[in-house]
Structures are given as structure tokens and as C-alpha cells.
Amino acid sequence: HREKDEEMEEPLESHVLVLPFPAQGHIKPLLCLAKVLATSGLRVTFLNTHHNHRRILPRDPCFSPSPLLCFESISDGLPDNHPRSLERLEELVLSIKTEMKAHLREFLLRKRVQFPVTCIIADGIMSIGIDVAEELGIPVISFRTYSACCLWTYLCIPTFILEGKLPFPDDDLDKEFHGLPGAEGLLRRRDLPSICRSKIDSKLYRYFIDENIAMTRACALIINTFDALEAPMLSHLAPIFSDVYTIGPLHALATQSNVGQFSGRSESVSSLWIEDRSCMVWLDSQAPRSVVYVSFGSLVKIAIDQLMEFWHGLVNCGRPFLWVLREDVILGEKEENVKSLLSELKVTSQTRCLVDWAPQEEVLAHPAIGGFLTHNGWNSTMESIAAGIPMICWPRIADQQINSRWVSEVWKIGLDMKDTCDRSTIDKMVNILMEDKKEEIMKSMARISALASDSIGPEGSSLRNLERLMENIRKIGR
Ligand code: UDX
Fold first, then answer.
1. 296, 330 in Cβ contact below 8 A?
2. Do 110 and 134 touch, CB atoms closer than 8 A?
3. Phi first, then psi: what are they for 194, rounded to 5°?
4. Atom of ligand 1 at shortest distance to CA of 25?
């Protein structure tokens, strides 16, 4: 390393370790940031779990988009054959807290001899990064992959519990929910993060609440949003964190810096699944703004009945659709039944195209796409905003419920079908989005999308914050 470093402009001592939570929706934005930092001359190590490292770099383990970006991995402590699925998330998070933490400490001590890490950027739900950094005296910055509105809600949950608002006193999810500063009159119980519907003494509940509190120990917060989108919510976060860097939409910032996609590779290195690019050819044959893109992200699973409601709703709405149906998307069915159903559905025709995994950013940027039926994971929401595509929201877990409320009621860039899933609603919503209310929703979307684009432009807040972040990382290193 040494010989190479002497020729580089960046002083030897800056070395950032980027530590994502081991899931697609976390790896993607943290890797975007890692790429941007490395392209700007900072040395970066991206630390995956062995399990995800093998999935991300299956063909060429030495591949790197930049000489300054290095991919390494440690064990998450689970056996190789563990499914690491949403249903068994508790085992994963407990293993992260104990086994993986010990591996992280060993890794950093090894690096200390070889190439000391001067700053850790830890995922907002990987407080093991904060614990070990504090132990070893390394500055740590927290990167929360959620929206500001969701982070603020999570931070208020302990107060809601003290005030007796959580758990909900009864089962009526349509009741208004009061008490979130800055959101008075906006929320029903069903709009709160999904965790609020579960028992407050569960291990997962504790994990997510504790992780959000732990984040406030970091020396700064990075968040993938932009000031013009979430100023009111960000104003609540500012007094809690020493410094806040809003750098969204990060995927667009990364693409702008020419590091979002890698030339010479057919699939993006930030995906745990291989992209099926045949859908791009199919999209080329469709009329402008005619296609509904459907995807529920990387974690959500659905029951077979729900899947069939979506199928009939989409067929009945009479518009062409492109649907991402992951192999593992169906809940609680025998593998052979799932396989045969999916192969029956996945027959491409002029009006429909179903794939295992799509190049989503490219799909959303395609002129044929007119609407996005989404689970409202925060990455998908930001990607939709950046591409200017209005949404139909079907949120399932975590932050998705609150994101969808903001999409429909605050930004007015989509329709929220939260907790309903029947063919007539799906059919109706698609037609409202793509016809009846098209102009109205497109107008709000065009405005918000332009703000997103401004935020990463030459004088934009996100670009300025990114530059400030890099400057501070360099200072920490000296
Ligand atoms: C979940 C959360 O809901 C999210 O808000 C949180 O920050 C991380 O965990 P996930 O289900 O993965 O995330 O959804 P999302 O945040 O939307 O991320 C999915 C990513 O996968 C997006 O960046 C999307 O572009 C990508 N994707 C999805 C593809 O590249 N191809 C696909 O076919 C589907």
C-alpha cells in the first residue's frame, strides 16, 4: 500500500470504514456514499458480512470501482445455512450485538497495525460501530437510512410509551394519533412505524428503540434526505445531534459523480440480487408514461391471496405493468408451489413483464413509466422522487407506514392504500393516479422532483453538505 499512497494526493492518514446493516436497503445507500467518498480521494473500506460480500461480488471478489475503495468482510456470527430472513431478524440482530461486534473489534485492531481507520460511518441501526469506536477512540458518524420524519418519530417513541400512548389502548388503527411534535393533525395510529403495532417488550422492539437512542452518541448524523423536502422534521433533529448532514437523494448524487453504476458490468454492484435487464427492452416497446412499475423492495413478503389480489387488480386496470417478484416474496408456502406459481405468472407479453429483480433506478428513469406501486422503503421513495414518478403506496414494515403518509398527505405525490389489498382498490388507485388525478399529482411531483435536483446541483444543500462532510472527515484524520 505504502508505495501507491505516496503518489496519491490524499494524505495517508484518512481512512473511513463504512459499516452497513446487512440488508439491501442499507447496503445500497451506504455503498453509494462509500463510492462518492472514494471517488473524491478518501480511502474507504466497505465492510460487509461474509454472507452479503459473497452475494455482492460473486464473480470477481477483487472488483472495486475505485482504487481507493476496498471491500472487506467479517462474520455476522450466524451459520452459513441461516436464511437471514425477515421472519428470523431477531436472531440476526442478537448475533450482530454479540458475535459480530467481537469480529468488528478484531478487524479494527488488525487494521490499526496495517492501515488505521480514522473515522467510522456506521449504519443507524449498527450501534456496534459506535460501541467499538468509543472503545478504540475512533470518531464515529451515524448514517440513518430512513427519512427524517421516521427518525423523528422513532426518537419520540420512548416519550409516547411514558405518556401511555403506546401500546395503543385499543385495536382501532384509524384513530387519530396526537403528540408527534411537528405533525399535529396528520397521523392516524396506522401511520406510525410498524413497530408501534407490536408488543413493547419484544426483543426487536427494544433493539430498534435502543439503536435510535445510541445514534445520538455519534459525533454527527448523515441522512439520505434533502432540506427542502423535510425542513420541518429536520428542525427537530438538529438540537439532538451535534451535526446533521442531509445528502439526499444520495443515489442521484452518486450517479452525478459518475460512480453510481460501474461500466463494464451488467449488474450494479450494490444489489444482492442479479438484475434482469430484459425488462428494459420490454419498456422500450411501451408508450410514454403508460406503464405501472410494481416493486415491494427487498424484505417485504406477501401472502399468496394478496399476490393474487395484486395480479387481478393490475390485469383489470387495463394498463401495462412491470412487476418485480422476488423468488422469496411469497410467505409461508411450500417452495415447489411458489416456484410453479411464479413460473406461471412470469410469462412476458405485450401488457406485462415480471422479473425477479430489476435495475430499479434505470426503470424509474425510463420514459414509459407512469406510476410506481411501491412499499415505500426509503430508497425507493427517494428514487421515485428523483425520477419524478408518482406513487401508489402499499407500506408493510418499519418506516414504510410513515413514509407513505408523508407521500400522500404532506408532499401530495401519491396515493396511500395502506393496509388494504383488494383487486378493486388496486384497479381504482392505478386509474386515479394515471388518469383522474394525474395532472394534480404530477404537478406536485414535478415541484418536489425539481427541489431534489436543485439540492444536488452546484449550489444545492446536499452537495454542500457532502463537501462539508468530506472536509470534516479529512480534518478528523489529521
Ligand atoms: C427497507 C426499508 O423499508 C427502508 O426504508 C430502509 O431504509 C431499509 O430497509 P427495502 O425493502 O430494501 O428497505 O426497500 P428500499 O429502501 O426501497 O430499498 C430497496 C433498494 O433495492 C432500492 O434502492 C431499489 O432501487 C433496489 N431495488 C429494488 C432494485 O435495484 N431492484 C429491484 O428490483 C427492487
1. no
2. no
3. -55, -25
4. 12
Judge contact between 122 and 207, C-beta under 8 A: no
**Sign, CA torsion 400/26/238/208:** positive
The two beta strands, 369-374 and 352-355, are unpaired
Measure the CA–CA gap between 6 and 64, rounded to whole angstroms: 20
Active site residues: 26, 123
**pTM score, whole prediction:** 0.94
Mutate to test the pocket of ligand 1, among 33, 272, 280, 298 (most ligand atoms within 8 A of CB): 298
Nearest to 426 by CA among 306, 304, 290, 345: 306
Compute the distance between CA of residue 212 and CA of residue 205 in angstroms, rounded to an integer.
Answer: 11
Q: Cβ atoms within 10 A of the Cβ of 52, count? A: 19
For ligand 1, which residues put their CB under 6 angstroms from it?
23-26, 28, 145-146, 271, 295, 297-300, 324, 357-358, 360-361, 377-380, 383, 398-400
Distance (Å) from CA 57 to ligand 1 centroid: 19
Of 21, 24, 301, the residue with max ligand 1 atoms within 8 A of its CB, to mutate for a pocket test, comes to: 24
Say yes or no to pLDDT of 62 above 70.
no
Q: What's the rounded Cα separation, in Å, for the pair 48 and 36?
A: 17
Cα–Cα distance, 165 to 197 (Å, whole number): 12
How far is it, in rounded angstroms, from Cα 248 to Cα 246?
6
In this structure, are residues 53 and 71 in contact, taking their beta carbons and an 8 Å threshold? Answer: yes
Distance from residue 328's CA to the centre of ligand 1 (Å): 15
Between CA 366 and CA 185, with CA 401 as vertex, the angle to 5 degrees is: 115
| Beta pairing class for 140-144 and 291-295 | unpaired
pLDDT given at position 339: 87
**Max CA separation in the chain (angstroms):** 66
Strand order in the sheet with 15-19: 69-74, 43-49, 15-19, 119-123, 140-144, 220-223, 244-246
Average pLDDT over residues 257-262: 47
Higher pLDDT, 64 or 95: 95
Least-confidence region, from 171-175, 206-210, 249-253: 206-210
Amino acid occupying residue 195? I
What is the secondary structure of 393-417 as a DSSP string?
Answer: E---STTHHHHHHIIIIIS--EEE-
Alpha helices (H) along 83-127 = 89-95, 101-114
**Cβ(33)–Cβ(250) below 8 Å:** yes
Q: How many CB atoms lie within 10 A of CB 290?
A: 17
Q: Distance from the CA of 393 to the center of ligand 1, in angstroms?
A: 14
User: Which of 226, 31, 217 is closest to 129 using CA atoms?
Assistant: 217
What's the 24 CA to ligand 1 centre distance in angstroms? 6
> Residue 6 — left, alpha, or beta (φ > 0 → left; ψ -120 to 50 → alpha)?
alpha
